[in-house]
Write a structure and sequence with these properties.
The complex is a heterodimer.
Chain A: H1 6-19, E1 24-40, E2 43-61, E3 64-70, H2 75-91, H3 115-118, H4 122-138, E4 141-158, E5 163-179, E6 185-192, H5 200-213, E7 223-229, H6 231-242, H7 247-251, E8 277-279, E9 301-305, E10 308-309, H8 316-322, E11 332-335, H9 342-347, E12 351-365, E13 370-383, E14 386-390, E15 394-398, H10 400-403, E16 407-410, E17 414-418, E18 421-427, E19 430-440
Parallel strand pairs in A: 7-12, 11-18
Antiparallel strand pairs in A: 1-2, 1-4, 2-3, 4-5, 5-6, 7-19, 8-9, 8-11, 9-10, 12-13, 13-14, 13-15, 15-19, 16-19, 17-18
Helix pairs in contact in A: 4-5
Chain B: H1 7-11, E1 30-31, H2 43-59, E2 64-80, E3 83-101, E4 104-110, H3 115-133, E5 149-154, H4 166-182, E6 187-203, E7 207-217, E8 220-226, E9 231-236, E10 256-258, E11 264-266, H5 272-288, E12 295-301, H6 303-315, H7 320-324, H8 338-342, E13 354-357, E14 378-383, E15 386-387, E16 409-410, E17 419-420, E18 424-427, H9 436-441, E19 445-450, E20 455-457, E21 463-466, E22 470-475, E23 478-483, E24 486-491, H10 492-497, E25 499-502, E26 509-518, E27 523-531, E28 534-543
Parallel strand pairs in B: 5-7, 12-19
Antiparallel strand pairs in B: 1-3, 2-3, 2-6, 3-4, 6-7, 6-8, 8-9, 10-11, 12-28, 13-14, 13-18, 14-15, 16-17, 19-22, 20-21, 21-24, 22-23, 24-28, 25-28, 26-27
Classes of the chains: A alpha+beta, B alpha+beta.
């Protein structure tokens, strides 16, 4: 059990900060238990648990910074990690962008911890795997999937007294179900904070239905289509774009949010009027720690309102240089939507394509955030409000910036995680005009 | 899949301050002082730990046991323009024990370096194996390996990167950055990634193998902007990550090749400063280069580009675990199914020979023994265009009908269980003498691509799309000018069957990936891919320029 009680964590950090002879010291404990189970070909393949707690110490002499980490907490180890950080700081060149440690702040706790997740046992993980495999076996389908749960904590203290402690949990489940002949494939993903809200048996049915329904895929000509991206399919594209919501790269002229002639696009209409993003550390079921990576308090903040850019991230250094107020880095992203389910969006579609999952998304041109990637594990043609037949997968070349100027309708937002990680997002299913597919893929 | 290395992953270390400090996995380990990076563990200690583990496992009922005592050292130096943003030294030391008991695998690991702790870890691994045995549908079948006794090996480096003072590294990168800025760059990032894996492997087959593996990578990214139009372009460095020491950065003339378009590319030695200057100029030229007209072109691909196409469309689909379905949920399966191997599927034209190996000098994969004690080798995947082999490890060899493992098992840490990873996979040089200039002189309507760019491929490795760093139009046998906005789309078998010429071994060079991800939880490995310049006829090229209105 790698959650240190608050009193114990605070005592360690107080000792560490007291040991430092540097101008400034910042210490942080970060730890937890990470459990996983993996299955493929209807068999459990691997299962593991990793317990770890790491202490990171950053010290500064003037503008020279050193970082050291350790995972033992006896007095001699604490002394050693502080001296190592100090030694590295003395060897380091001055960092002209060094910012001093933050003064003590007040943080409002957020609901990031769920007892049911913290109580997961190896037997629970095995049950989730069995619940995924058994119905597939019974239906002549093949399951491959992965469940990972994390119960963690963070505690930090700096030499100016900025202090925080909080625990958190999360569960991520994905399952790919294939037909035995390899002609059909379906997928489901479910990311939750609370294990009590997760039911592998219900989730796997979605992947099973999509696997069976996708077996006789027909080829459509590549081109521009109305698409319905399920929230998980949209996550990879949206997450990629959000990497550019940084004031510095925009001000430096190397982002789609740079303004020709200089400056950034804060205040400008960049997306369609349906598009609004905000961040809120206390957002229900998607809460994140109430502080950012620098120990600044997070607060609810609009990012895009009705298509207009409201806020970009300013690091403390860049805010100071530009005469702006530094705001805490975002921990989650919430996109506004409506009340409709994906099924409702399908019913209101004359002709279009339903996309379950997107895959291997990479940047083609940063100038326009043109991304390429593929559909996967359940792509269907919609006609007259109904799913007509499965279609072969497509490669897309599309910019989320263009895509979010072509919004027809948004569904009910749900919590998702993209294939390659990233932060917690709450996204709606999106019906979009003129989404650009450039070639067919034979992959199932 | 090839990892995306976000710059903010590196920067997050600079803000270790507080809140969710996340050390990216590539930084895993304990930060240490620079002088600790040049030491090694006593081999007698390693042997005593291994013996403790193997004895305990055998006594607990294991029919097989291997023990890996690992010390993984990494140093990262990260700079932009005139600033050193970060210097990080990390160390991770511990012991991983893998066993077979009751026909099932079990694995456990500990960072406690005592015989008692390793013995307990071995007993834990046996307990896990016995628990797993209950659900097993078939027992593990290991291809045989003959023990080699006590042996040791070190990557044949000239200069251990870890011994080079930090000051010298900072001076090198600052020189690179200022050269780029003087040559017209608006922004430049340059980095050094240095890795030393000290790996001791012992098994109940009777092997005690001590290997000291070194790798180096010096990536760079130069950006130019035209503020008036809001247009910006970047050009990444043309180096390759290598299994070499710091001598790779000595800029020796013997490592340089000047291509027919005037671009300088690099083999076993890299001149980072020279490349930075070229990068700034070539990035500037991109701002005004004409946009490609989409259509079918004959592509001439430089090895600095082709490595990534080989990696995605040959290396990954010919991993046997992927073919069998073990990676179905994340990385995917493979179009190159077992029946295609039996039928000697025409993977490419008869000019195409693709081989796997763990032995090429200077390559990222080069080691004499893999992470399950199998002597490494070179073997064929595609011969005369036909599919003839996969990459398989000890417990997979029997599935392919092989008597022995191919020796491509790897774990990225003592704490990770070893599994099948891509060997170096390379395109054999052409047997008939052919220079790049001669190849280009025969192309009527083509595009010459240098450097790797955007990349994406589907989950069965059919449909792929690749960009590049530099594109040049070829008309009537001559290079005309630089062009922009090029990406090509392929279907893997059609692409390799469109290969009509391969330059000879004089042009053979390595490219590679320092962070190739696979598995859940994901492990990272480093792998090289060699080729000579090759020609592919009638490939579909798209124009990637868009307008945001």
């Amino acid at each position: 059990m790698s959650i240190l009680p608050e009193a114990q964590a605070k005592a360690i950090l107080t000792k560490v900060v007291g040991l430092s002879t540097a101008d400034e010291c910042v210490a942080q404990l970060n730890g937890g238990t990470r459990g996983n189970i993996r299955f493929a070909l209807n068999n459990v393949s691997t299962s593991g648990i990793v317990d770890d707690i790491e202490l990171a110490v950053q010290v500064a002499f003037g503008k020279r910074v050193g970082i050291a980490t350790i995972n033992q907490f006896d007095d001699a180890s604490l002394e050693r990690v502080v001296r190592r950080a100090e030694e590295l700081a003395r060897l380091a060149p001055e960092n002209p962008e060094f910012m001093p440690a933050i003064e003590a702040q007040t943080f409002t706790p957020t609901a990031t911890f769920s007892p049911a997740t913290a109580a997961i046992t190896p037997a629970d993980r095995a049950r989730a795997a069995t619940a995924s495999i058994a119905p597939c076996k019974a239906s002549g389908l093949t399951a491959a999937g992965y469940l990972e749960d994390v119960t963690g904590f963070v505690c930090f203290l700096n030499s100016k007294g900025n202090y925080g402690y909080q625990t958190s949990t999360s569960v991520d489940y994905t399952c790919t179900v294939r037909t035995e002949d390899g002609r059909g494939s379906g997928w489901v993903g479910h990311n939750v904070q609370d294990m009590a809200a997760f039911d592998a048996d219900a989730d796997v049915r979605i992947a099973m239905r999509k696997a069976s329904a996708s077996a006789d895929a027909m080829a459509l000509e590549p081109g521009k289509y109305t698409v319905i991206l399920e929230p998980a399919a949209a996550a990879g594209l949206i997450g990629f774009m959000m990497n550019f919501f940084d004031a510095r790269s925009a001000d430096e002229g190397r982002s789609f949010l740079s303004k020709p002639g200089g400056g950034n696009k804060i205040g400008e209409q960049v997306f369609g009027p349906e598009v609004s993003f905000h961040t809120d550390p206390a957002y229900p079921d998607a809460a994140v720690y109430p502080w950012d990576n620098e120990g600044m308090p997070r607060a609810p903040m609009p990012i895009v309102e009705n298509g207009r850019i409201v806020n970009l991230e300013y690091s403390r250094y860049w805010a100071q240089k530009q005469g702006k107020t530094a705001l805490a880095g975002t921990g989650n992203l919430i996109m506004a939507g409506g009340d409709k389910s994906t099924a409702d969006l399908i019913r209101s579609t004359d002709r279009g394509i339903l996309v379950t999952r997107t895959w291997y998304i990479r940047m083609v041109d940063p100038q326009t955030v043109l991304l390429t990637g593929l559909t996967r594990d359940g792509t269907f043609y919609i006609e007259n409000g109904q799913i007509k037949h499965p279609i072969k997968n497509f490669r897309f070349n599309e910019s989320p910036v263009i895509m979010l100027n072509n919004v027809e309708e948004l569904g009910r937002p749900v919590r998702v995680q993209s294939d390659e990680g990233g932060y917690v997002m709450v996204l709606p299913a999106m019906k979009l005009r003129d989404f650009t597919f450039t070639s067919l893929s034979d992959a199932v | 899949m090839e990892a995306i290395v976000h710059r903010r992953d590196f920067l997050s270390l600079g803000a270790v301050g507080m809140g969710g400090l996340v050390l990216p996995s590539m930084f895993a380990g304990t930060a240490i002082a620079a002088q600790d990076l040049v030491s090694t563990l006593d081999v007698r200690l390693k042997k005593s730990l291994a013996d403790a583990g193997m004895n305990a496992a055998t006594q607990a009922g294991a029919s097989y046991c291997d023990v890996r005592v690992g010390r993984y050292l990494r140093q990262f130096v990260i700079t932009r323009e005139a600033n050193v943003e970060n210097i990080v030294n990390t160390e991770s030391t511990g012991v991983g024990v893998r066993v077979i008991a009751d026909g099932a695998w079990g694995f456990a690991a500990t960072n406690a370096m005592t015989p008692e702790a390793v013995a307990q870890t071995a007993r834990d691994a046996v307990a896990i194996a016995k628990a797993n045995a209950g659900t097993l549908t078939s027992r593990v079948q290991l291809a045989p390996v003959t023990g080699v006794g006590e042996v040791s090996w070190k990557t044949p480096i000239v200069k251990n990167s870890m011994e080079v003072p930090i000051e010298e590294k900072v001076e090198l990168l600052m020189g690179v950055n200022s050269a780029a800025m003087e040559a017209g760059a608006n922004f430049v990032q340059s980095m050094l990634f240095l890795v030393n894996e000290q790996k001791y492997f012992a098994s109940t087959d009777g092997s005690y193998i001590d290997q000291d593996v070194h790798r180096i990578w010096a990536p760079m990214d130069v950006t130019v902007i035209d503020q008036a139009s809001g247009k910006f372009r970047n050009r990444e460095g043309l180096s390759a990550p290598m299994g070499l020491g710091f001598e790779y950065l000595n800029g020796s003339p013997s490592g340089k090749t000047t291509l027919p378009n005037g671009v300088v590319v690099y083999g076993n030695s890299y001149d980072m400063k020279e490349d930075a200057i070229a990068a700034a100029r070539q990035a500037r030229a991109k701002l005004t280069a004409p946009s490609v007209k989409p259509g079918k072109y004959d592509l001439v691909l430089d090895p600095s580009h082709t490595w990534l196409t080989i990696h995605e469309s040959v290396g990954h689909p010919l991993e046997l675990d992927r073919v069998l379905g073990y990676e179905a949920n994340f990385a995917g399966t493979s179009f190159a199914t077992m029946d295609k191997m039996r039928d000697r599927f025409q993977y490419g034209s008869d000019k195409v020979n693709l081989f796997a190996d763990k032995v090429q000098p200077g390559s990222l994969g080069a080691v004499p023994y893999d992470d399950e004690g199998v002597a490494t080798k070179k073997w064929d995947l595609v011969r005369d265009g036909k599919l003839v082999g996969y990459q398989a490890i000890r417990d997979q060899a029997h599935i392919e009908g092989k008597a022995a493992s191919d020796g491509c098992c790897y774990a990225d840490s003592w704490a990770s269980v070893q599994f099948q990873r891509m060997a170096n996979v390379s395109l054999e040089a052409g047997k008939t003498p052919l220079s790049v200039a001669e190849m280009i002189s025969n192309v009527e309507d083509g595009i010459y691509i240098v450097g790797d760019g955007s990349f994406s491929i589907d989950q069965q490795r059919y449909n792929a799309q690749f960009g590049g760093q530099l594109f040049f139009e070829i008309k009537n046998g001559a290079i005309t000018h630089q062009i922009e906005d090029v990406a090509y789309q392929i279907r893997t078998p059609e692409f390799w069957n469109a290969c009509s010429a391969i330059c000879d071994e004089r042009d053979y060079r390595l490219g590679g990936s320092f962070f190739d991800g696979k598995g859940q939880p994901s492990q990272s490995s480093a792998v090289s891919h060699g080729s000579s310049t090759a020609r592919f006829d009638g490939i579909n090229v798209i124009n990637t320029a868009r307008s945001l209105g």
